[in-house]
């Protein structure tokens, strides 16, 4: 796909404006839906937020919050959102445990 090519959605939006006799092709502000960054920042400030509370804060469905958390590799355990990324310390501890089990 060529970088300068317009997306199909852009054509649809322009056609909708044309039908409404609005010939202004400038981009209008979006509806303000939360981005993954905003949800991630909220979780970093307080990992004890429930997905329901996040959904109410941003006025979106709880399923969308779960999708955003899954994309960012967060998992909810005991009402705490934790990162799924394994840290170096955890990885070395797992390797040591595996080595001791193999020796047995």
TrEMBL record:
GO terms for cellular component: condensed chromosome; nucleus; site of double-strand break. GO terms for molecular function: DNA topoisomerase binding; double-stranded DNA binding; histone H3K36 methyltransferase activity; histone H3K4 methyltransferase activity; single-stranded DNA binding; single-stranded DNA endodeoxyribonuclease activity. GO terms for biological process: DNA double-strand break processing; DNA integration; double-strand break repair via nonhomologous end joining; mitotic DNA integrity checkpoint signaling; replication fork processing. This is Transposase.
């Amino acid at each position: 796909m060529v970088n300068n090519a317009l997306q199909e959605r852009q054509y649809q939006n322009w056609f909708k404006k044309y039908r409404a006799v609005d010939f202004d092709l400038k981009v209008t502000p979006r509806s303000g839906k939360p981005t993954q960054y905003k949800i991630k920042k909220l979780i970093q400030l307080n990992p004890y937020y429930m997905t329901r509370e996040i959904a109410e804060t941003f006025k979106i469905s709880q399923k969308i919050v779960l999708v955003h958390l899954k994309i960012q590799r967060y998992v909810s355990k005991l009402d705490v959102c934790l990162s799924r990324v394994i840290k170096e310390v955890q990885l070395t501890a797992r390797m040591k445990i595996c080595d001791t089990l193999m020796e047995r």
